[in-house]
Amino acid sequence: MFKALIPGALIMAMLAACSQEATPPAEVSTQAVKPTAAAPAPVVKDVFASQSEEVQARYVYRHPQETLEFFGIEPGMTVAEALPGGGWYSKILLPLLGGEGKLIGIDYALDMFPKFGFFSAERIEAKKTWTTTWTADANSWRTDDSAVVSAFVFGSMPEESKGVADAFLFIRALHNLNRFEGDGGYLTAALRDAYDVLKPGGIVGVVQHMAPEDKADDWADGSKGYLKKSLVIKKFEEAGFEFVASSDVNLNPDDQPGDEDIVWRLPPTLATSRDNPELRQQMLAVGESNRMTLKFRKVER
Q: What's the rounded Cα separation, in Å, for the pair 275 and 272?
């Protein structure tokens, strides 16, 4: 378990660092596909160009424009974002969705946080008001032309939120849900909420740290940040989604984790090299993690 390797303060940083085509093809594709190369509208280009230098520095690894185009995210949509945290993707989605759009932030269930083992009682107590505090933060990121915001936590979706979303984004948000699945059914509950909040035919977009398929299942259970692509597809199909396609836009073949490695050894967290400049440079040379990028569609039961 990685908690034994890293002080609590660094684990807090890890959690924060992990905190996000409407018409599918005639047949489900299991082949990697590239996002279309069509030039985006000027307003869309401006959304990405207007982000801070710090955010844009991550574009080389996170490819937000290509990723959101692959998922088919467009102005005017209602989009649910799992684990929005400090808003790295939210701050892009708000102006991208525009004044006719809506953004719904969704956090972990409250009873999941004690299982990490490092959250203070005060921090867990503060999570009880997360829907209010995150919505207030998100409103501070808005302009008059941005999407409106709301929020709920997994397992407590309001009745009025059912069937309202065009898309649901799980961007680096699945590993802890799977890690604690056996101790609370958190992934199952999250996928049920994703299914219920989506309109018929709604899209799910997944970006997730990807484990090599030859790794042991207990290594790739999410506790090190990584999940197998085969497991993710299986879980979504069992939850009522159809696998549409994958994209290689966020792949990084330089990320070759060993059995003792955790995803948070890599930038931006660099959790294992804070006091080792040589190792830090090695991790910076690798870059951010190797990530699967998958698209699913809600299938009516």
A: 8
* CATH code of the domain containing 248: 3.40.50.150
Residue 8 belongs to some domain of the structure = yes
Bridge partners (DSSP) of residue 210 are 227
State the virtual CA torsion across 88, 192, 217, 7 in degrees, nearest 10: 40
Tokens of 36: 């279309």
Four-CA torsion 88, 24, 202, 109, nearest 10 degrees:
-50
Q: pLDDT, tens digit, for every residue of 240-288?
A: 999 999 999 999 999 999 999 999 999 999 999 999 999 999 999 999 9
- A 10 A CB-CB count for 72 gives 18
- 198-211 and 227-228: which strand pairing? parallel
Residue 273 included in any domain: yes
Q: Does some domain include residue 111?
A: yes
- Position 217 in a domain: yes
Q: Please name which of 19, 4, 8, 223 lies closest in space to residue 120, comparing C-alpha atoms.
A: 8
Give, to the nearest 10 degrees, the angle between helix 42-49 and helix 90-97: 160
- Would you call the peptide bond into 200 cis, given omega within 30 degrees of 0 as the criterion? no
Instruction: Supply the range of the domain harboring residue 49.
Output: 2-21+40-225+234-254+264-298
Q: How many domains does the chain have?
A: 1
Residue 284's Cβ-side half-sphere holds a number of Cα atoms within 13 Å equal to 9
139 is written with which tokens? 């409103």
Name the pTM for this structure.
Answer: 0.86
Confidence category of residue 44, pLDDT binned at 50, 70, 90 = confident
pLDDT at 28 over 90: no
Distances, alpha carbon 240 to alpha carbons 17, 83, 188, 194, 299, in Å: 29, 21, 11, 10, 6
Cα–Cα distance measured from residue 62 to residue 42, given in angstroms and rounded to the nearest whole number:
21
